[in-house]
Design goal:
heterodimer; A: alpha/beta; Rossmann fold; Dimethylsulfoxide Reductase, domain 2; Barwin-like endoglucanases; B: alpha+beta; Alpha-Beta Plaits; two-stranded antiparallel sheet; 11 strands
Chain lengths: ~950, ~250
Amino acid sequence: MGQPKIDLSPKVSDEVRKTTCYMCACRCGINVHMKEGKVAYIEGNKDHPVNKGVLCAKGSAGIMQVNAPSRLQKPLKRVGERGKGEFEEISWEEAYDLAVEWLEPVHKKNPEKLAFFTGRDQSQSFTSFWAQGFGTPNYAAHGGFCSVNMAAGGIYTMGGAFWEFGQPDWDRTKLFMLFGVAEDHDSNPIKMGLGKLKERGAKVIGVNPIRSGYNAIADEWVGITPGTDGLFILSMVHLLFKAGKLDLNYLAQFTNAPAFIDEKDGPNKGLLLRDKDGKIIVKDRATGKAVAFDKKGVKPDLGATYKGARTVFQQMAEKYMSDEYAPENVAAATGIPAERIRAMAADLARVAFDEAFELDKEWTDFRGEKHTKMVGRPVSFHSMRGVSAHSNGFQTCRALHILQIILGTVEVPGGFRFKPPYPKPITAHPKPHYKVTPGAALDGPHLGYVHGPDDLCLKPDGSAARIDKAYTWENPMSAHGLMHMVISNAHAKDPYDIDVLFMYMANMSWNSSMNTGGVMKMLTDKDENGDYVIPKIIYSDAYSSEMVAFADLILPDTTYLERHDCISLLDRPICEAEGANDSIRWPVIEPDRDVKGFQSALCDLGARLGLKGFVNEDGSQKYKDYADYITNHERRPGVGPLIGFRGEDGKSEGRGAPNPNQLQQYIDNGGFYEIHVPDGADFYKPWNADYQDWAVKIGIYDAPQPYLFELYSEPMRRFQLAAEGHGDRQPPDHLRGRIGETMDPLPIWYAPFEDSRVDIEEFNVHALTQRPMAMYHSWGTQNAWLRQIHGRNPLFVPTKIWEANGFEDGDWASVTSAHGTIIVPVAHMAALNENTVWTWNAIGKRKGAWALKEDAPEATKGFLLNHLIHELLPENGDGMRWANSDPVTGQAAWFDLRVKIAKADAPADAMSHPNIEAQKSPVGVGPQDLEWKVGQ
Amino acid sequence: MTTLPQTTGKKLGLVIDLDTCVGCHACVVSCKGWNTENYGAPLSDQDAYGSDPTGTFLNRVHSFEVQPETGPAQLIHFPKSCLHCEDAPCVTVCPTGASYKRQEDGIVLVNEDACIGCGLCAWACPYGAREMDAAAGVMKKCTLCVDRIYNENLPEDDRVPSCVRTCPAGARHFGDLGDENSDVSKLVAERGGMDLMPEQGTKPVNKYLPPRPKDVEPEFDILAPYLEPVATDQKGFLGWLDKALEKI
């Protein structure tokens, strides 16, 4: 029998529409293949700067997301009790009327009684603009429970951080060290980068208690004890200082290492000495004179003294050469043998200095010095949530940056590179604003970077101005707010009560809150009059999530292929080290439901409420929808949400008047725009005159902003000074000691707070979660393809604990923290830190959510560790319960969790416990079977 | 019984780098997306939103833990799809001739029009690489994206299997393993590419590149010269600093 003839060149699609993925926060370019007006197939866009054609499992499964049965269909008004999921469908007109009825009196009389928090929002520059117009100080997105330590630690130290702010020089690095990263950001670029390193045979060291994913392919794995990364890093800093393996020239030229620390008692003690213009003073090695740091030709002396003051560098040497950080003295706590710490420090020194190389590129520094070469140091690092989600995370992030900087590896070839609009010094960021005026806009942007106590958001009586207590003495540098504290503070009416809680795509009654059961109770609690303690809740989501059941009014959002968006440099950008990039989403399909992009709904609501920025002078609606805003909004004259195709003729980039055809030109260009960093401006960016001039030209800055890296953090020292009694703004007495200890201006390590609040002999196991590569938070579960990959989440248990408990396959365990107990299925995993258990993040679901059947494994055996984590630490003899957060930034300390484990009888119902009662689904359940083929 | 060709013009197949695969499942889902929409019946899913969702996938990633004699345990991600064997037992066992190996390039395919869904081929395959589609009642398997690799409607650089095009880490390579000068053949030679279960005698075309050794002791002395202290005390350190700064 002959071979059958088959069609080797079938038609692939009728049309390809290029837009931006939103299956996670990576924001890759995608080609959406259309057949008969329907989505037939999704692949990566090869021209796109983020993913260059590749696409992860989530991205390829987008077709199952835009067709998910969990999609909300129409605006909903609650008719049953909160939490039950009982709704009636209403029209958009009715929904807007209700929202205006609730919000208008708040705006006019007391704007702070609205708390508007927007979750995993990719339009924060817009949603914050709306909140500013409303006049409430209570706005933030999800950074406070995600990775603010990483962002703020980097920005306060070197004017940029990992992920959106920078990237390793994947093409030149020879030694790459990865701390605490699972599928944390950013998704595809890290995989692509690791692929490049593997292709070249470069070495990868993975530091993570769990050896999965990226750590599975690491050439060396360091199964560190959770929460001790800072100690490990400072031990390597100790060894490098002792051996003099430091890039002294780099430290002298580009950091505040040669600055002098005032050692005289008084209100300036510990601040840096400055001249009459406020510039940092250094001593010139050539002349021996004290001069401003930026004087042409100056050779700052790291070892000098001035008027009895020593340099930052000398204090660092003294601090880090102390035996406290010797490998032998950190080995027990970190779980890393001293010899291995030495080996890794030696490897860093060897590669940074012995494998240094030069690029023949000329550049001019901010002092006007010309350089003929760029020195490469091929060592790079990346880190995310495993480091930042601890109560010592901010200091640990700073410690990691100190390690990068003493090796001279930041913004040099082979090292770590910033992505525009970074580098950006603290002084170029706004400070937080919180001045409320009834019926008017807030006095400026909510979120920003404080320089000291004067910038805290405190009312005249010293109480918190914000509902989440961001920018208070409890967490002074909380640059992203504290979304995880909003519901508990609003419920406790501390610092005050609110009237409306308005949230967007944040699953706060489930996987995005600590103490999930407690939060559900707070959302449903009633006062003595029978009214809800949190009076009104408006929520917007595209899908039937757990949070939907707790809202009074639902504004149904679109899926990502049905909407306009901009991935803007004003927001969380998608730039690369060698280019400023932005992109759009546009409706490649029209919604088949009565739903609206949330941002367009805010344009309507803003106009109905008459908010500043959303109405014209005659009171008419300013932006008819989000697309109109993207095209026509100008944040500063000539600078809008998008950098490409500006000017009336569409020929300007960076700066230029609004262009009515801008979105179409983006669509024609593949959905994105790139401006390349000029050759020679592509390294040493904070100090490189060509980069600074280019950044001004395209509208990133309005004037050049060169600066020194802050090894020594004066903003932190200013908080310590206040705690020591200096200045008018004084912390409450009970916080003085903690501020003094934790706001050290040079990075330190201290044990995670939970360690001092629970008996660590009893709660002797660390418990963590990781995000699977094929899922994004709770979203993946509604996806028929992805849930076949990650539909179950046992607790993974290391060999030592497995054997000690006599566990066998199919067993159950009770897992108990200081806060509660869960009963869950267990599975053995050998490639683990021996005292650490973990599970996949956000697989467990509430019955009735996400259009799953109630017997779905996610709802029966799936579970959340969140039940074990409280937003407050246990009381510790002082009568107070401190926030379970980093004391510097307020970042949720998810990974401080300690538990104890015991074998448990299999539950009679074979379900994980707690077993929350079902919510009613407003969209029914999904179909039994799928045979997905669009074309015939 | 169906016969195999004596020889094939090319031996098209995949080379999968187990040193680089992070187990992200990108290939699994891209394959599902392309192949549900293209060659033959869609890849169906049963109980898609229920208690035991099971669908047809032509490519799956398995993860295995390895405990070496010394050093910590390792985790290996192992993507697996049809290996397009030269001596493919799934073909010879087929009672209708529906399973066949293409003469020109060696790709093993199922002619769904002739498939009676008896499942013998799945029993014969030692790799478990074939999946019976519960809705269509026909056998599904990796086609090596035969409808992509020659497809004149696709740009030339897209004429590779969808799993290869999408792999973020670049762990998947496609080419002619019958040509010893091809990039994939050279990669196999350089990295010691291996057959999966060679003892089965199926002569798989696909090859796996083994993981490189992990957690090995450094080859240099970790103390000298890299971590030799420059001084014994703070004063000595400042003396060293002064000299070092002079040299800059």
